[in-house]
Amino acid sequence: MSFTDLRGLIDTLRREGDLAVIDTPVDPYLELAEIHRRVIDQEGPALLFTNVIGSPFPVVTNLFGTIRRVDLAFGPRPEAFMKQVVGAMDRLLPPTPKALWGERSLIWDALKVGIKEVPASSAPILGALKAERPLEGLPALTSWQLDGGPFITLPLVYTEHPEHRKQHNLGMYRMQIFDHSTTGMHWQIHKGGGFHYHEAEKRNEALPVSVFLGGPPALIASAIAPVPEHLPELLLSSLITGGKLPVVQDPRSSHKIPAQAEFVLSGSVAPHVRRPEGPFGDHYGYYSWTHDFPVFNVSHMWHRKDAIYPATIVGKPRQEDYYLGDFLQRLLSPAFPLAMPGVKDLWTYAETGFHALAAAIVRESYSREALGSAFRILGEGQLTLTKYLMITDQPVDLANFPQLMETVLERFRPETDLFVFDKTSHDTLDYTGGKLNHGSKAVMLGVGEPVRELPAVYDEGLIDEITGIKPYCRGCLVVSGAAFSDEPELPQRLLKRLREKGTRWPLVILADDAEIASAQTPFLWTVFTRFNPADDIYAETALKRHHVGYELPLVIDARMKPGYPDELIPREDIVELVDRKWKTYFQA
């Protein structure tokens, strides 16, 4: 099943009993977000809030908060089609008549991909226009108490290259509402909309922008997909939906807009204008700080007469972005070998905010080919922001991180297979490098035959200054001790004591709480959002021919450090408020 608009998915969820309708008055300031977080924690239903204080529009959240709902929203066809396309490449090169006939069903499906312009009479989005104070009454949410203000959290930001207008970008960049006609525009590094704005600034021109809210669910998936810069996201949306995307000319702007969207905000971003945006509780699970970003000036807003405002809540995993990211990786993974020869499979981990950790299965047909594939990955689009990259040539399930970790550690040769690169770029939301957009990277290889047997049970006795010890998987031990602020040099002492013991554990993680070893999500979130490779990897080293060779064990200091942003924790009075009102939200 494919859905051509948001309400088709909502109606299906309602019929299937996977939508909770909340008629109780709910405040978009903190209260709504707290309800959402509790429901998604329990893998509960999608939520439709019909009585949002201060707004005439209902709000829908948690549409993609389970694997089942993501599969329902997009169906099996997109993944099957992508696999068919990749499988046909060899058969269609060269494109002989016999080969073309053999792939006729694929070619027929490909002809359905694209956009089609419809008349205004067939475009529900043009049902209502608001040109004065266009953002007034929009139910934008404030999710966390230290947020700089209300944010639009599911904006589909559409831009066109100022010179080559056929080159468009559809991205999801959060937007803080400043007043009734202006918002921030959080264009991070390595984002297509930011590239368009950079070109417009060089010409000293304002960049026209349209922001879509709602429409086909495929638009949301396409906006966050890590596709190459010049691949049109609107075409990807069409591919996922299985038919041409209906668009209509905006009578007041140069852009064509999705005919089935719920809202469209139209305006421009002026050159050389910045305004402080943030803080914001983001998908890393912390507050991103206040920084200067461009400003979106909204000239008018179109919306359906009965528009539904789509929103999401971000925070510590797992949230909706986890399930959407999983779908997109399954969808796009068959294409990785085409874009990066030698890379058989690739996975980035939603539990870490995606950019903090990636892993790949690569070909190793000659010595060190895997290292070349690692460099290829780190040079590809948004993957250039990867902080820690793990590489193997073994057939493992990359989504199963303990299995991957064990596979790599069994084969990892520390003197040749660990590379740390300082003074590189970081994701804008990753503050472990100490400076915005700056940090370091590490590549860890584990290929070939095993070179060691990994311990599974810790039996090496007490360790001075260590209060908690727990294995995460074979070969990886998590320990806890004093906080960094009290004992910043604890990792050096821990390393010395482990070496004196002759430990069999090749990798030891120093955390604030060893209990993170209990499951994949807390382990990945804590470890990979709390260390910068150049600062926080400890080992004995030897420099030879400009190469740093390491000796086991490796110690990673994944404790919270001074200067890191605050962890996201709900405000106590809001928690108590939702406790008191809980039964009124879900009346039978």
Automatic annotation (TrEMBL):
GO molecular function: carboxy-lyase activity
Stretches that traverse the bilayer: none
Residues covered by the 3-octaprenyl-4-hydroxybenzoate carboxy-lyase-like N-terminal domain: 10-88
Naturally occurring in which organism (per UniProt): Paenibacillus albus
GO cellular component: cytoplasm
Every 3-octaprenyl-4-hydroxybenzoate carboxy-lyase-like C-terminal domain range: 323-444
Name of this protein: UbiD family decarboxylase
Domain of life assignment: Bacteria
